[in-house]
Amino acid sequence: MIYFNSDYLEGAHPALLEKLNETNMVQTVGYGEDEYCAAAREKIKAACQAPEADVHFLVGGTQTNTTVIAAILRPWQGVLSAVSGHINCHEAGAIESTGHKVITLPTTNGKITAQQVRDYVEWHKHDESTEHIVQPGMVYISHPTEGGTLYTKAELTELYGTCREYGLPLFIDGARLGYGLMADESDMTLPELARLCDVFYIGGTKVGALCGEAVVFPHGAPAHFMTMVKQQGALLAKGRLMGIQFDVL
């Protein structure tokens, strides 16, 4: 019998396990500074057609969402998300534990629109109590959404345009990005998605890896991002294990 309860019912792709075993006794430096991570980064940048991108390997999705959001926001800011968004519903208050509010927008299909972002930012800007209200500092979406729906290229283009208009970094949670891009209904490629956001990640944990997510900043990471990764407990000492997995995948 085949079960579809979650993405975690099997271990990992056999080719990945073979490579881990093959390289098991090879000595490398730690914390992602090894040749396997370097090779994987170059493959990811090439696949994204983003040669200037910064690529970081983190251990899991919750750590990735928490670290990226904490690195981008200032202390008085929050992150805009669909009310059904993963960071709002299924991460045990991880974002709030860093001192940042998840500002929720209503949705019937898991997606948020450019107009919703515009309306909220304009409301915040013109409210007489604006200095007493958490300021929206970035926008979070996932592709696919928590309900399995997909953003079209047109929707993402419009959303990113609005984010740029208001100076809000757009973050795409890609824990299931492989599914989203390969779905029959998808009209987007990986390079197109990389051009339509400020940061996203390529999920490994849910797409054949033992663990790990590859965070991509197409235009460069925030200052001291790796220090934030370490602070949030998302940096694997034996970083080569991440590099080998993504190099194979």
Topology:
Elements: H1 14-22, H2 35-48, E1 54-58, H3 61-72, E2 77-82, H4 86-89, E3 102-105, H5 114-126, E4 135-142, H6 153-165, E5 170-173, H7 177-182, H8 190-195, E6 199-203, E7 213-217, H9 225-231, H10 240-248
Helix pairs in contact: 1-10, 2-10, 5-6
What does this structure look like?
By secondary structure, the protein is an alpha/beta fold. The protein has a domain at 59-227: Type I PLP-dependent aspartate aminotransferase-like (Major domain) (Aspartate Aminotransferase, domain 2), CATH 3.40.640. Helix content is 37%, strand content 15%. The protein has ten helices and seven strands. The protein has helices at 14-22, 35-48, 61-72, 86-89, 114-126, 153-165, 177-182, 190-195, 225-231, 240-248; strands spanning 54-58, 77-82, 102-105, 135-142, 170-173, 199-203, 213-217. It has a seven-stranded mixed sheet, with helices on both faces. Strand 4 (135-142), helix 6 (153-165) and strand 5 form a beta-alpha-beta unit. It is globular and about 65 Å long.
The radius of gyration computed from the alpha-carbon positions, rounded to a whole number of angstroms, is 18 Å
Looking at the overall shape, the CATH architecture of the domain at 59-227 is 3-Layer(aba) Sandwich
- Uncertain stretches of 5 or more adjacent residues: none
Structural class estimated from helices and strands? alpha/beta
CATH class of the domain at 59-227: Alpha Beta
Helix count?
Answer: 10
Shape: globular
CATH topology call of the domain at 59-227: Aspartate Aminotransferase, domain 2
Q: CATH homologous superfamily name of the domain at 59-227?
A: Type I PLP-dependent aspartate aminotransferase-like (Major domain)
Sequence of secondary-structure elements: HHEHEHEHEHEHHEEHH
**What is the tally of beta strands?**
7
Amount of helix: 25-40%
Give, in spatial order, the strands making up the sheet with the most strands. 1-7-6-5-4-2-3
